[in-house]
Write a structure and sequence with these properties.
The chain is about 75% helix and about 0% strand. It is built from five helices and no strands. It has helices at about 5-30, 35-60, 80-110, 115-145, 145-160. The relative contact order is 0.16. The structure holds fe (ii) ion (2 copies). One fe (ii) ion binds near residues 49, 93, 96 and 129.
Length: about 170
């Protein structure tokens, strides 16, 4: 396994775990503010990010690579409002898109073809992730401080089920 690509994938494993941790902290904030639907949505998203980390982990394992787990940094736990949480989620997804793009570029330059194929899944996934987050941000911007509409939105987000296993 190409050492440079392996190291970069290990870094992305850490990024995905950070993303998972960050969504969990967002979920805890919403739980505390009694927006249990938002909390549920974010908790499911946290699980999905865990799945992304494990997808790369499994890829390294399948290629006889070395999985090197690193410390996960502390995520933000305080937000000004529930709407701000989802704005932060959208920004986080945009950051991850950039990380995936650079990882893809690196794998391309290193001619790591199997990694390129694996990373294509992530490129598609980021298109979905950014779209989903921006739709929610838009909904919060429409709802503003209308309590009835906020409760409806919370209920809608709470209907999200557990993520399906990868494959
Ligand atoms: Fe992810
Ligand atoms: Fe994501």
């Amino acid at each position: 396994m190409n050492a440079v690509v392996q190291q970069a994938i290990n870094e992305q494993i850490n990024n995905e775990f950070f993303s998972s941790y960050s969504y969990l902290a967002m979920s805890a904030y919403c739980e505390r503010k009694q927006f249990t639907g938002c909390a549920q949505w974010l908790r499911m998203q946290s699980q999905e990010e865990y799945g992304h980390a494990m997808r790369l982990y499994d890829f390294l394992a399948a290629r006889n690579g070395i999985v090197q787990l690193q410390a996960i940094r502390e995520p933000a736990g305080e937000y000004g409002s529930i709407a701000e949480v989802f704005q932060a989620a959208l920004e986080q997804e945009r950051t991850v898109t950039k990380q995936i793009d650079s990882l893809y570029e690196l794998a391309f330059n290193e001619k790591a073809f199997s990694a390129l194929v694996e990373l294509e899944w992530f490129i598609n996934e980021q298109v979905e992730e950014e779209k989903t987050a921006s739709v929610i941000v838009h909904k919060f911007s429409m709802v503003k401080d209308d309590p009835a509409a906020l409760l409806d939105l919370d209920r809608e987000l709470g209907s999200r089920g557990a993520p399906q296993a990868a494959e």
